[in-house]
Write a structure and sequence with these properties.
Helix 1 runs antiparallel to helix 2. This protein has 368 residues and is of the alpha+beta class. The chain has seven helices and 25 strands. The chain starts with a strand and ends in a 5-residue tail after the last strand. It has three domains: 111 residues, DNA Polymerase III, subunit A, domain 2 (DNA Polymerase III, Chain A, domain 2); 120 residues, DNA Polymerase III, Chain A, domain 2, CATH 3.10.150.10; 116 residues, Roll (DNA Polymerase III, Chain A, domain 2). It is 18% helix and 43% strand. The longest helix has 15 residues. The strands form four sheets. The protein has a nine-stranded antiparallel sheet with strand order 13-10-11-12-25-24-23-17-21. The protein is elongated, with a radius of gyration of 25 Å.
Length: 368
C-alpha cells in the first residue's frame, strides 16, 4: 500500500491523544487502520471516548486492517520526508518504507481491538440536531474554565450541554463560580454532561468539519462531521439545577465597567495577594470608582478604575483568579455587572453579563 505522509500525520495527530496513558489495557494504545481502494479509515478508543476519521482510498488497499501503536506511528511519520510512504503487511511484521528508510514493527491482531459501538438505544435518545462547528466549540471553550477540578465532585467535572429558552446552552460550574452561554441553535432536550477529559478530542476531531451533527443520548453523544465521528460517554451523575442560581433579582445593583481596565487592575493587584485563596477586596463606590485591594505577606496593592454604578458603597471579597478567568474569557469591551446589595451580600453572587456573547458568569463572594 502507498499513502501520502501528510494524510497520516494530519489525521493521526487529531486522535492520538485518545490512545495515550492507558497501561491497564495496552491494546487501546493502538490505532486501527482499515485501508481500501475507495475509502480508508483510522479509529481509536479509550473505552470512554472513541473516534473514527475517514481517509482517501489507497493503492493496493484491498480492504486490509492493521493495528499500530498510535504515538509510535505518528513519531515515525513525522520524521519521514514529505511524499509517498509504502506500508507492507508481512506475516509477523508491518514494514514502513520510504527511500532508504525502513521500519519493522511488531504486528498485532486487529480482531482483538475493542469494537466501537455508537448505537444509542431508543429509550436513551434525547436529541438530534446540526450546528456550525465553530459555534459548538466556541460555546464549550467559553465556559470550560469553570469546570470543577475536584474529582470527588464527579458530576461537575465537565461541560453541561442543554437547552434554555429553546436554544443550545453550555454551562460549567465548580460550585464557587458558574459560566453559561446561549447560542442561536433551536433545540430542546434535558441535558448531558461532557467530561472534561473529552474536550480536547472534541476540539481536535469535531473541529475537522464545518458542520457537526449531534446525536444525544443519556449515556453518550455522537458528534458526526463530513470526515469524522466522535463518540463520547457522558458523566453519569446528577448536575445541579442552575436556573434558580442564575436568576438575577432586585437584590443587585447595576454597574458597567471597561473589561480591559478591570482585567488589568485584577492582574496588577493579584501579584501580592495571599497565595492560599488569592483574595481581592473589591470596593464598588457610588462616586463611580472601582477600587481593588490585595493583601499578602509581603505587603498590599491598590488599583482604582472608572465605574458606572447605580448602588451604594459596598465591599466584596473574591478569589482573584476566578475573576481573572471570567474576564479573560469575556469578549465584550464593556461588561455589565450585577452587584449584591446589603443585607444579602454574603448570600448573593456577583454577576458578569455579556450582551454580545449572550453569556453570563457569576462568582460567589468570600468572607472578608
Amino acid at each position: 500500500m502507498v499513502i501520502d505522509k501528510m494524510c497520516i500525520v494530519e489525521r493521526l495527530s487529531k486522535i492520538v491523544g485518545i490512545t495515550e496513558k492507558h497501561n491497564i489495557v495496552p491494546i487501546i494504545k493502538n490505532v486501527k487502520f482499515k485501508f481500501g481502494e475507495t475509502i480508508s479509515m483510522m479509529s481509536a478508543t479509550n473505552l470512554e471516548v472513541s473516534a473514527i476519521i475517514a481517509m482517501p482510498g489507497v493503492a493496493g488497499g484491498d480492504d486490509k486492517e492493521l493495528l499500530l501503536n498510535g504515538r509510535l506511528l505518528l513519531d515515525i511519520f513525522k520524521e519521514l520526508n514529505d511524499g509517498d510512504v509504502e506500508i507492507i503487511d508481512s506475516d509477523e511484521t508491518i514494514i514502513i518504507k520510504q527511500g532508504k528508510t525502513l521500519y519493522k514493527l511488531a504486528k498485532e491482531s486487529a480482531e482483538d481491538f475493542p469494537e466501537i459501538n455508537g448505537e444509542i438505544e431508543k429509550e436513551d435518545f434525547m436529541a438530534d440536531f446540526e450546528v456550525d462547528t465553530k459555534t459548538l466549540i466556541g460555546a464549550i471553550r467559553k465556559v470550560e474554565f469553570a469546570i470543577s477540578q475536584d474529582e470527588s465532585r464527579y458530576g461537575l467535572c465537565g461541560v453541561r450541554l442543554t437547552s434554555r429558552n429553546g436554544k443550545l446552552t453550555a454551562v460549567a460550574t465548580d460550585g464557587y463560580r458558574l459560566s453559561m452561554v446561549e447560542k442561536d441553535v433551536a433545540v430542546d432536550f434535558a441535558g448531558v454532561t461532557i467530561p472534561r477529559k473529552a474536550l480536547a478530542n472534541i476540539y481536535n476531531v469535531v473541529g475537522m468539519g464545518e458542520k457537526v451533527r449531534l446525536v444525544v443520548g443519556r449515556k453518550m453523544v455522537k458528534f458526526i462531521t463530513s470526515v469524522s465521528t466522535l463518540i463520547c460517554r457522558t458523566i453519569d451523575a446528577a448536575y445541579p439545577v442552575f436556573e434558580p442560581i442564575i436568576t438575577v433579582n432586585g437584590d443587585h445593583a447595576n454597574a458597567v465597567v471597561e473589561k480591559d481596565a478591570f482585567m488589568k487592575a485584577v492582574k496588577t493587584v493579584l501579584i501580592v495577594a495571599d497565595s492560599k485563596n488569592k483574595m481581592l477586596k473589591v470596593s464598588f463606590r457610588k462616586d463611580n470608582k472601582l477600587v481593588l485591594r490585595a493583601d499578602g505577606t509581603v505587603g498590599n496593592a491598590y488599583e482604582t478604575i472608572p465605574l458606572e454604578y447605580e448602588g451604594e458603597d459596598v465591599v466584596l471579597g473574591f478569589n482573584g483568579k476566578y475573576l481573572q478567568d471570567i474576564l479573560v474569557n469575556a469578549i465584550d469591551k464593556k461588561i455589565r455587572l450585577k452587584v449584591p446589595k446589603e443585607p444579602e451580600i454574603k448570600l448573593s453572587s456577583l454577576f458578569v453579563l455579556e450582551d454580545d456573547a449572550k453569556a453570563l458568569s457569576l462568582v460567589m463572594p468570600l468572607i472578608i
